[in-house]
Design brief:
Layout lengths: L4 E7 L3 E12 L2 E13 L3 E2 L2 E2 L2 H19 L5 E6 L5 E10 L9 H11 L8 E13 L2 E4 L9 E12 H13 L3 E7 H9 L2 H6 L1 E6 L4 E7 L2 E8 L3 H12 L3 H11 L12 E3 L10 E3 H25 L10 E4 L8 H9 L3 E3 L6 E2 L10 H16 L4 H4 L7 H14 L2
Parallel strand pairs: 1-6, 3-19, 6-11, 12-17, 17-18
Antiparallel strand pairs: 1-2, 2-3, 4-5, 7-10, 8-9, 8-10, 12-13, 13-14, 15-16
Subunit structure: Self-interacts. Interacts with FtsZ.
InterPro entries: ATPase_NBD (IPR043129), Cell_div_FtsA (IPR020823), FtsA/MreB (IPR050696), SHS2_FtsA (IPR003494)
Membrane topology: Peripheral membrane protein
């Protein structure tokens, strides 16, 4: 039974979220059911990076305990999200000769050419997290999605390499192993969220997924089913809360409540009239402020975030040119009128994305904030179903952190009594 359990852990700067899924045997095959979900405040983490190992381990352990009480199953291993401005991407190209004399391309050839694409000069102290093949070429025939079974002499691949800072990867793996859990894989958080939120059709048409966290905003652009561009910005919804706290001279907790109850990402005449009595939110407050003031603060920061994101779309010549538009997810996507603001700034269709196609009785999982945790579970489920197939490559789950995590695991186990 334990082999059928898949756990996804989303480590954020303000909240840690975990989702637990189970592969259930049905007449038409296996189905994924979410059987547990929990969240808790995070400490020791800033902008997606570990700043205190002791605090981070305590925070992760508390959330694991919550979900274990809910499911009755101990968390023994998990897929872990990794996010932060330190994560970068670059294009790569790999070329190999087809091994067999008859010229037929086999799985081994595809593996070799993807490995060849990994031999890029990565920046110092960086590790490769994912290799995402875009398309293959066989001799002079280009734009091939799956070359297995074709005949040729030379096999090439164009791929995107996603890499992270070695120190951050090691710190994160150390935190997880100190909780007593093993790591199935480290997954770039925005890719995991895309797994839960986006449809195959959206990825084919062209879509941008924007994951708005507390201190970072992740972007991934898909076109023809492939990842075209990724970026992590060091700014998020928590900065809006901070701005409101400074502007209204109030506490962070009151500012967060004001943001969600009275904030708006769009400044629209009549709708922003009125006063906000802070004493109704916190009896220790006595100020009464104009709602328009709050909306102007929120709108200014949203404009900054969306302008930076649109600059990224311009860098790959896709601003205003994605038929499936922009899908917003993450905790920051719950801000009132944010889709209207996105339509205005991106000049594209816009919607809020929540985890979809999940069998669950847990209401909290159908929340933009749980997109990454749910996506990690789906990522693991897809890998278990497709292991041994070419789909493994299209998921982009070629992780070079495996040797780091295995060494870490051995080291920690050697310390145990």
């Amino acid at each position: 039974m334990r082999e059928d359990i898949i756990t996804g852990l989303d480590i954020g700067s303000t909240n840690i979220r975990v989702a637990v899924g189970q592969m259930v045997q049905q007449t038409e095959g296996h189905r994924l059911q979410i059987i547990g979900a929990a969240e808790g405040p995070s400490e020791g983490i800033s902008k997606g990076s570990i700043v205190s190992i002791e605090d981070a381990v305590s925070s992760i352990s508390r959330v694991f305990e919550k979900v274990e009480r809910m499911t009755g199953i101990p968390v023994e291993h998990a897929y872990i999200s990794i996010l932060g401005p330190h994560i970068t991407s670059q294009d790569s190209h790999g070329v190999v000769a087809v091994a067999k004399a008859d010229g037929e391309i086999r799985e081994e050839d595809v593996e070799r050419v993807v490995e060849a694409a990994q031999t890029v000069s990565t920046p110092p102290n960086y590790e490769i997290l994912h290799v995402l093949p875009h398309h293959f070429s066989v001799d002079n025939q280009k734009n091939i999605k799956d070359p297995v079974g074709m005949t040729g002499i030379k096999l090439e691949v164009n791929a995107q390499i996603i890499q992270g800072l070695s120190a951050q990867i090691k710190n994160l793996t150390k935190c997880i192993y100190r909780t007593g859990a093993d790591i199935d894989d480290l997954v770039f958080g925005v890719l995991a969220a895309a797994q839960a939120v986006l449809t195959k059709r959206q990825k084919e048409l062209g879509v941008a997924l924007v994951n708005i966290g507390a201190t970072t905003t992740g972007l991934v652009v898909f076109e023809e089913g492939d990842v075209l561009h990724t970026k992590v910005l060091p700014i998020g919804a928590g900065h809006i809360t901070n701005d409101i706290a400074i502007g209204l001279r109030t506490s962070i907790d009151v500012a967060e409540a004001v943001k969600l109850q009275f904030g708006s990402a769009m400044h629209e005449g009549e709708s922003v009239k009125g006063q906000i009595d802070l004493s109704k939110i916190d009896e220790n407050e006595d100020a009464v402020i104009a709602r328009k003031t709050v909306v102007e603060i929120v709108e200014a920061r949203i404009e900054e975030i969306f302008t930076m994101l649109n600059k990224e779309l311009k860098s790959v010549k896709r601003d205003g040119l994605l038929p499936a538009g922009v899908v917003l997810t993450g905790g920051g996507a719950k801000l009132p009128d944010i889709t209207a603001a996105a339509k205005k700034y991106f000049r594209l269709p816009s919607s809020v994305g929540v985890p979809r196609d999940l069998e669950t009785a847990i209401d909290k999982i159908e929340d933009p904030a749980f997109s990454t945790a749910a996506g990690l579970v789906q990522w693991g489920a897809n890998l278990s179903q497709r292991s041994g197939h070419r789909g493994h490559f299209s998921l982009g789950n070629l992780s070079s952190v495996s040797h780091v995590t295995s060494k870490m695991q051995q080291w920690f186990k050697s310390l145990l009594p």
